[in-house]
From TrEMBL:
It comes from the Eukaryota. This is PPFIA binding protein 1a. Keywords: Membrane, Transmembrane, Transmembrane helix. The chain crosses the membrane at residues 85-105. It comes from Labrus bergylta (ballan wrasse). The lineage of its organism: Eukaryota, Metazoa, Chordata, Craniata, Vertebrata.
Length: 106
């Protein structure tokens, strides 16, 4: 089970690294965008959400030592890209919560 979770996590991280870097080539299939195409925001966004959920699930199956060992294998560019993106998400959510609390008191 440990190797399955590790393999899933490695595959998810590799795919996320490609999405973040925008290195996936645009593919067409019968005139439609491929899900991996970064120019297809709806399908690409859904793919990222699924990858994030897969990543979360795989991490939950690992113990702390496995996570630490895996963390050491993540490329710096991937870690930095994810950290930057997640910090923007956290900042956005903090603004949403702040302004929603203001409207409650108005």
């Amino acid at each position: 089970m440990m190797s399955d979770a590790s393999e899933m996590l490695a595959a998810a991280l590799e795919q996320m690294d490609g999405i973040i870097a925008g290195s996936k080539a645009m593919d067409y299939s019968n005139g439609l965008f491929d899900c991996q195409s970064p120019t297809s925001p709806f399908l690409g966004g859904l793919r990222v959400l699924h990858l994030l959920e897969d990543l979360r699930g795989a991490l939950e199956l690992m113990d702390n030592e496995e996570r630490d060992n895996l963390r050491c294998q993540i490329p710096d560019s991937t870690a930095e890209g994810l950290a930057e993106w997640l910090s923007c998400v956290v900042l956005f959510l903090s603004f949403v919560f702040y302004f929603s609390s203001i409207f409650i008191y108005l």
